[in-house]
């Protein structure tokens, strides 16, 4: 809804230029006031949402299903909860055809996104796309079913799609290097810098050329069956980064031991060192 206001302002200003006079000035003033009021109301609603405590049921989901949250010290848990609230306020999460999504699934989507950027204080995901949660895996025609094979998908300028089953599995099996929530939000960070080219926007620019070289080395290791990363990472540069992200959070010690350079660059990118408290 908010995105329409700038269009209305543009239309009003165009009208004003075509028909100068007191009426036109009035139209511009009214349009500007409408924009300011809408902005102030949303700002206030966001502040209220951030001040309100996270619902007990949502906190229970974090405690029971999100090992990353469970291991945080108390003060960091509070910060994590705050980032979950911010994400849930800012983003639109629904099921196909606008159906509601259960709260625990929304919390798992938010927790995935927050885990990735928790070491980058102040980072806020832009509200640029809808998040759609299907019950099951799906195919490229968005047909669902147990025989379908897509667990999650990010469109460059469109929605982010998840299978609820895959999302739950990702949190239930936190050590297997397979987590659709982390995987898809890694793509979001990658798309953020333009195309999905395997170079995330969080990476310091001085590291980019080293990272691009490493993508080739790591792809060769997967193909030679000498990698901690799962095979899907060899698909292309973007998948290498997303799969490496999954391993970074789910197999940090193995990754640090067997791929120390890759691990060090991910520490630098994400601003956190999961191997130190795994
Ligand atoms: Zn992917």
**Strand arrangement across the biggest beta sheet:** 1-2-4-3
List all distinct small molecules, including ions and cofactors, that are bound in this structure: zinc ion
Level-1 CATH class name of the largest domain: Mainly Alpha
Distance between the termini: 43 Å
Q: Can you give the mean pLDDT?
A: 88
Q: Name the overall outline.
A: globular
- Segments where pLDDT lies below 50 for 5+ residues? 1-10
Query: Number of helix segments?
Result: 12
How many strands, what sense, and barrel or not for the largest sheet?
Answer: 4 strands, mixed
Structural class: mainly alpha
Our estimate of the beta-strand percent is 5-15%
Named at the architecture level, the CATH assignment of the largest domain is: Orthogonal Bundle
Helix content: 55-70%
Q: In the CATH hierarchy, what is the superfamily of the largest domain?
A: Glucose-regulated metallo-peptidase M90, N-terminal domain
Order of helices and strands: HHHHHEHEEEHHHHHH
- Say what the CATH topology of the largest domain is: Cyclin A, domain 1
Key terms:
disordered N terminus, 4 strands, 3 domains, Cyclin A, domain 1, 12 helices, mainly alpha, 278 residues, binds zinc ion, Collagenase (Catalytic Domain)
Describe the structure concisely for a colleague.
The chain has 278 residues and is mainly alpha-helical.
Descriptive account of the structure:
Helix 8 (180-191) packs across helix 10. Strands 1-2-4-3 form a four-stranded mixed beta sheet. By secondary structure, it is mainly alpha-helical. The model is unreliable at 1-10 (pLDDT under 50). The radius of gyration is 21 Å and the shape is globular. It has twelve helices and four strands; from the N terminus they run αααααβαβββαααααα. The chain has helices at residues 4-18, 22-51, 56-65, 67-70, 74-90, 103-117, 164-172, 180-191, 208-223, 237-250, 252-258, 260-270; strands at residues 92-94, 130-134, 152-154, 160-163. The protein has three domains: 4-51; 54-172, Cyclin A, domain 1; 202-278, 3-Layer(aba) Sandwich (Collagenase (Catalytic Domain)). The relative contact order is 0.08. The chain binds zinc ion. Zinc ion (ZN) binds at residues 183, 187, 239, 242. Zinc ion binds at residues 183, 187, 239, 242.
């Amino acid at each position: 809804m908010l995105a329409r206001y700038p269009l209305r302002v543009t239309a009003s200003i165009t009208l004003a230029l075509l028909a100068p006079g007191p009426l036109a000035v009035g139209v511009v003033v009214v349009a500007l006031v409408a924009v300011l009021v809408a902005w102030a109301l949303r700002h206030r609603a966001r502040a209220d949402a951030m001040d309100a405590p996270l619902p007990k049921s949502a906190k229970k989901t974090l405690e029971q299903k999100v090992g990353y949250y469970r291991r945080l010290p108390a003060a960091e848990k509070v910060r994590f909860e705050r980032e979950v609230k911010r994400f849930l306020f800012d983003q639109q999460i629904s099921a196909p055809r606008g159906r509601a999504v259960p709260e625990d699934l929304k919390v798992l989507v938010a927790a995935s996104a927050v885990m990735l950027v928790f070491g980058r204080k102040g980072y806020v995901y832009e509200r640029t796309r809808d998040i759609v949660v299907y019950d099951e895996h799906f195919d490229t025609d968005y047909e669902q079913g147990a025989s379908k094979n897509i667990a999650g998908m990010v469109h460059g300028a469109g929605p982010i799609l998840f299978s609820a089953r895959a999302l739950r599995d990702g949190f239930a099996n936190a050590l297997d290097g397979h987590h659709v929530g982390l995987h898809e939000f890694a793509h979001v960070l990658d798309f953020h810098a333009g195309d999905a080219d395997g170079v995330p926007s969080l990476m310091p620019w001085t590291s980019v050329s080293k990272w691009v070289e490493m993508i080739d080395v790591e792809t060769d290791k997967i193909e030679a069956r000498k990698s901690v990363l799962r095979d899907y990472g060899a698909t292309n540069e973007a998948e290498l980064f997303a799969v490496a992200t999954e391993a970074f959070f789910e197999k940090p010690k193995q990754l640090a031991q067997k791929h120390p350079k890759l691990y060090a660059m991910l520490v630098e990118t994400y601003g956190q060192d999961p191997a130190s408290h795994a």
